[in-house]
């Protein structure tokens, strides 16, 4: 701007620019800020006025918490989406400034810390806009992750609550709805190459007035997705849950007055932040470093480094993820920074301080540093439908680091836990169901991730996802009423499928699916970790293994079951190793499968991952090995060669003397085969990634990022986005080269 | 923002063993001598202001020794075992009792995570100035 401009002229230009914004895209200020808003004068006055009535405030807080839980249950009971039915949702109360102050205890805790952005956008841009406004009876929705939340398959709905004409809060619900009209069915397109492949894109949008949906907008939304019935049902269930919370809020205000309500909402936020800071004070000051490697974009295998430093100082925590991989501009595995922050925040809500209120203030004392343009802080033009493929590994990097600070903390509210299994190992499906309806969604058994080992006990088998402490895996019989999929093996725990350790991780289950009675049916799988484990153990415990997708094509198992039942096998390893169906084609793949149509009776097989192990395997109590043997989840090979336990397999009796000798011999072997650190490091460490390994991210210097080769690099503060070739083009080129070589020969 | 509790943090969960502060499952720090120690055998693991890993023994493990391929590697590319061209297991042992203190999964040749735990020893000493004069306390696992 010209410095010579007169003040009046400058203000006119500013006014003109303010009134003529070309496009209200995601607000950078809102999206980057996860702190709690400064209280309004009325909120501050209310807190002061109610300062000596903590028992009343506590009562009100519990009433509001119950209202959130009640609304959660309503959505779970009424919702049609698998995500709604099995708990992939929350219901909550936002302050009058849009901060999420209270939310349902169960469900997807990740929502608890990233739901505020669209509310703040509405308050900033729509409240005073004469063409929109925020009024009693209005209904707002949102799903575009660039304006907040995780990914576009999640839809939020909120309504404002007024008292005597003043906005006192916003109440809302967010649900993983599934189908959203993306380039692949089910709402989480691993094949998306741009944000415009990711389906419905609602910025915060007024979809109703006077407590009714606008028919034209409702029709637009239904017309944009493959399941119009689901779209309507999802909107109605969320809306009526919001009405219930609104009613409860109004009851509280009627009983105690509006100041008591405002004091409770504001006090819950500030108390939570203060308590987190108090707890952090009890941690030792210091720095922890961990590295995690994601092995796939879901389209191809590449090695994506997540570099993580966690720095604790006084009552603050800094999570420094700089040096991590650059973004992939035509792959769906990038994350919006705010989405990743939500994922990191619920690490503290679910695994570190599960006793704290579910609200965004939990994360307020924590700072996150990333390189702009990295896969963990992607640009607006990078797709993010499968952001989980980078923010889950980022979660694991932090989960791997935290125990080294938490172990010697003065205050802990739960056990020390290793790394939880971190992938959404399930099938996304799409096609025509047995009722001749077009459907596309995700199976809820992604929620059965193997629990990690803890300091004091083994991890639990297929217990809960890393983003929700209470979510269900669904009832198979109910699912089969709606979709033509049949799980020949729905949830069978697999032998040795966990991280070994003094305490072992929980196991994950095998899933073998097929389908029938449909004109067209297909599957997707969105999981990394087929070449490099996606999660880890701690304090000497091992990671779980790797997880491929296995297929048996050119078979119809329903025909086999008719009169060749002896051929049937019910574990993946038996099917793949024995290949019992004579003319079938057997194959294994990395578990990033884009939507693929399959014929009736063909088998698609995946394995839910196990949790990481805790501590030295040689310290595992032989009695625990005996129990695992009795439960058929540990092999002889592992008992003898990893745990070094000698036992009678028929009776389960441990030979303690022989075990002690075997373990003493193994300890001796360890020292004999190992080398002193400096000698080992000198031989092991290379200056660059190996030739032929497609490595992305920093190697030794966090300011320099590799772009797939040893020599191609960019500075971390000036990232060059990665464009990947189409895997089919890569395959064609490879085949052409082979053909040319054959011709030449 | 700082809290009033900054001066007197809660230390009720900290374990002190023989005058050493338990830091992890296998590591303790002698605050008087400023040294790392193995919690199983008390082996001195060097200056607590530096990396304890430099005192450990290190071994590169072929991943399939731990993660047995569940499906035949002769028939399939993806077998449930990590790909050794992409992933190696690095094991760290106490040089005296051979306890496996840490495990890292790294691409071949990737720098080891030497400084995985760097504590502010001065702050730790200040934190424990009062508690260290006592004997056993706390209840860490």
**SS class of chain B:** mainly beta
Q: What is the strand arrangement across the widest sheet of chain A?
A: 2-1-6-5-4-7-8
Total count of helical runs of at least 4 residues of chain B: 2
Order of strands across the main sheet of chain B = 1-2-3-4-5
Give the radius of gyration of chain B: 20 Å
- Counting helices, strands and paired strands, the structural category of chain A is alpha+beta
What's the structural domain tally of chain B?
2
Outline the structure in words.
- Chain A has about 750 residues and is an alpha+beta fold.
- Helices cover about 35% and strands about 20% of the residues of chain A.
- Chain A has a 7-stranded antiparallel sheet, sandwiched between helices. In chain A, strands 9, 10, 11, 12, 24, 25 and 26 form a 7-stranded mixed sheet that branches.
- The longest helix of chain A is centred in the N-terminal third of the chain and has 29 residues, at about 230-255.
- The model of chain A has no long low-confidence stretch (mean pLDDT about 95).
- The two termini of chain B are about 30 Å apart.
- Chain B is about 10% helix and about 25% strand.
- Chain B contains 2 helices and 9 strands.
- Chain B folds into 2 domains: about 1-50 and about 120-140, no CATH class; about 50-110, no CATH class.
- The longest helix of chain B has 7 residues, at about 120-125.
- Chain B is elongated, with a radius of gyration of 20 Å.
- The chains are: A alpha+beta (about 750), B mainly beta (about 140).
- Chains A and B meet through α9, β9, β10, α15 and β20 of A and β6, β7, β8, β9 and α2 of B.
- β23 (about 675) of chain A pairs antiparallel with β6 of chain B.
Defining traits:
heterodimer, A: 745 residues, seven-stranded antiparallel β-sheet, 26 strands, B: mainly beta, 8% helix, elongated
List the helices and strands and how they pair.
The complex is a heterodimer of chains A (745) and B (141).
Chain A: H1 7-19, H2 28-32, H3 41-49, H4 54-78, H5 82-85, E1 89-94, E2 100-103, E3 107-108, H6 116-126, E4 139-142, E5 154-163, E6 166-176, E7 205-209, E8 212-213, H7 215-223, H8 228-256, H9 258-281, E9 286-296, E10 301-313, E11 316-320, H10 337-352, E12 366-369, H11 388-401, H12 403-406, E13 427-432, E14 438-442, E15 468-470, H13 476-482, E16 485-493, E17 509-515, E18 521-526, E19 549-553, H14 557-563, H15 572-578, E20 585-589, E21 592-597, E22 603-607, H16 622-630, H17 636-641, H18 656-673, E23 675-676, H19 677-684, E24 695-697, E25 704-707, E26 713-715, H20 727-744
Parallel strand pairs in A: 10-24, 11-12
Antiparallel strand pairs in A: 1-2, 1-6, 3-15, 4-5, 4-7, 5-6, 7-8, 9-10, 10-11, 13-14, 13-18, 16-17, 17-22, 18-21, 19-20, 19-22, 24-25, 25-26
Chain B: E1 16-17, E2 20-22, E3 27-30, E4 35-38, E5 44-47, E6 57-61, H1 63-66, E7 88-93, E8 100-106, E9 117-119, H2 121-127
Antiparallel strand pairs in B: 1-2, 2-3, 3-4, 4-5, 6-7, 7-8
């Amino acid at each position: 701007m010209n410095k010579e401009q007169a003040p009046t002229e400058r203000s006119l230009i500013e006014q003109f620019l303010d009134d003529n914004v070309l496009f209200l895209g995601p607000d950078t200020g809102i999206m980057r800020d996860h702190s709690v808003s400064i209280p309004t004068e009325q909120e501050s006055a209310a807190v002061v006025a109610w300062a000596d009535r903590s028992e009343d405030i506590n009562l009100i807080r519990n009433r509001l918490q119950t209202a959130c839980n009640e609304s959660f249950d309503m959505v779970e009971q009424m919702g049609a989406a698998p995500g709604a039915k099995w708990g992939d949702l929350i219901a909550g109360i936002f302050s009058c400034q849009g901060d999420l102050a209270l939310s349902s205890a169960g469900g997807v805790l990740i929502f608890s810390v990233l739901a505020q952005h669209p509310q703040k956008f509405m308050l900033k841009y729509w409240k005073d806009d004469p063409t929109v406004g925020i009024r009693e009876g209005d209904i707002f929705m949102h799903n575009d992750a660039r304006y907040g939340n995780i990914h576009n398959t999640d839809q939020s709905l909120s309504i404002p609550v007024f008292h005597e004409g003043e906005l006192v809060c916003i109440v809302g619900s967010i649900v993983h709805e599934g189908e959203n009209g993306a380039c692949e069915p089910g709402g989480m397109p691993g094949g998306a190459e741009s944000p415009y492949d990711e389906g419905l894109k609602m910025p915060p949008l007024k979809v109703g007035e006077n407590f009714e949906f606008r028919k034209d907008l409702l029709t637009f939304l239904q017309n944009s997705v493959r399941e119009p019935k689901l779209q309507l049902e999802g909107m109605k269930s969320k809306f009526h849950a919001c009405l219930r919370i609104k009613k409860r809020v109004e009851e509280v205000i009627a009983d105690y007055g509006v100041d008591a309500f405002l004091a409770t909402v504001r006090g819950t936020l500030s108390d939570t932040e203060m308590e987190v800071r108090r707890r952090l004070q009890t941690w030792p000051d210091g720095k922890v470093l961990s590295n995690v490697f994601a092995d796939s974009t879901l389209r191809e295998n590449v090695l994506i480094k997540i570099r993580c430093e966690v720095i604790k100082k006084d009552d603050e925590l800094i999570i420094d993820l700089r040096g991590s991989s650059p973004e992939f501009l035509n792959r769906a595995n990038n994350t919006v920074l705010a989405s990743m922050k939500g994922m990191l925040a619920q690490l503290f809500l679910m695994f570190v301080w599960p006793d704290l209120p579910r609200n965004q203030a939990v994360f307020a004392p924590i700072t996150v540093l990333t390189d702009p343009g990295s896969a963990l802080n992607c640009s607006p033009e990078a797709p993010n439908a499968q952001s989980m493929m980078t923010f889950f590994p980022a979660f694991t990097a932090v989960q791997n680091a935290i125990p080294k600070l938490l172990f010697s903390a003065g205050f802990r509210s739960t056990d020390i836990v290793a790394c939880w299994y971190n992938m959404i190992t399930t099938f996304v499906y799409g096609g025509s169901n047995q009722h001749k309806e077009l459907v596309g969604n995700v199976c809820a058994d992604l929620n059965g991730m193997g629990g990690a080992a803890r300091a004091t006990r083994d991890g639990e088998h297929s217990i809960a996802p890393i983003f929700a402490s209470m979510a269900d895996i669904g009832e198979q019989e109910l699912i089969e009423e709606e979709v033509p999929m049949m799980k020949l093996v729905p949830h069978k725990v697999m032998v040795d499928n966990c991280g070994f350790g003094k305490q072992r991780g929980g196991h994950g289950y095998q899933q073998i699916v097929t389908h029938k009675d449909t004109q067209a049916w297909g599957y997707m799988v969105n999981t990394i970790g087929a070449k490099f484990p996606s999660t880890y153990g701690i304090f000497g415990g091992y990671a779980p293994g790797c997880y491929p997708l296995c297929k048996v094509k050119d078979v119809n198992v329903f025909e086999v079951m008719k009169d060749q039942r002896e051929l049937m096998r019910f574990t993946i390893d038996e099917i793949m190793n024995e290949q019992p169906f004579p003319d079938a084609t057997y194959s294994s793949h990395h578990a990033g499968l884009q939507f693929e149509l399959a014929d009736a009776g063909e088998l698609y097989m995946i394995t839910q991952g196990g949790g990481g192990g805790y501590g030295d395997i040689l310290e595992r109590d032989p009695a625990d090995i005996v129990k695992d043997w009795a439960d058929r989840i540990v092999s002889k090979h592992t008992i003898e060669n990893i745990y070094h336990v000698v036992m009678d397999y028929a009776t389960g009796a441990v030979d303690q003397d022989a075990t002690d000798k075997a373990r003493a011999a193994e300890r001796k072997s360890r020292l004999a085969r190992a080398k002193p650190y400096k000698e080992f490091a000198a031989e092991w460490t290379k200056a660059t990634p190996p030739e032929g390994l497609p490595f992305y991210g920093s190697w030794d210097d966090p300011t320099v990022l590799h772009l797939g080769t040893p020599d191609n690099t960019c500075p971390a503060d000036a990232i060059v986005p990665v464009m990947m070739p189409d895997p089919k083009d890569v395959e064609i080129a490879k085949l052409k080269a082979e053909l040319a070589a054959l011709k030449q020969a | 923002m700082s809290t009033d509790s900054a001066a007197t943090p809660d230390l009720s969960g900290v374990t002190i063993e023989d005058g050493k502060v338990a830091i992890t499952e296998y590591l303790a720090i002698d605050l008087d001598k400023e040294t790392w120690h193995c919690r199983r055998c008390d082996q001195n693991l060097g200056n607590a202001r530096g990396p304890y890993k430099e005192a450990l023994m290190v071994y590169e493990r072929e991943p399939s020794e731990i993660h047995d391929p569940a499906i035949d590697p002769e028939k399939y590319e993806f077998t449930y075992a990590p790909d050794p061209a992409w992933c190696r297991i690095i094991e760290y042992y106490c040089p005296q009792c051979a306890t496996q203190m840490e495990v890292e999964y790294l691409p071949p040749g990737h720098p080891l995570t030497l400084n995985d735990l760097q504590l502010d020893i001065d702050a730790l000493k200040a934190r424990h100035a009062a508690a260290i004069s006592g004997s056993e306390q706390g209840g860490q696992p």
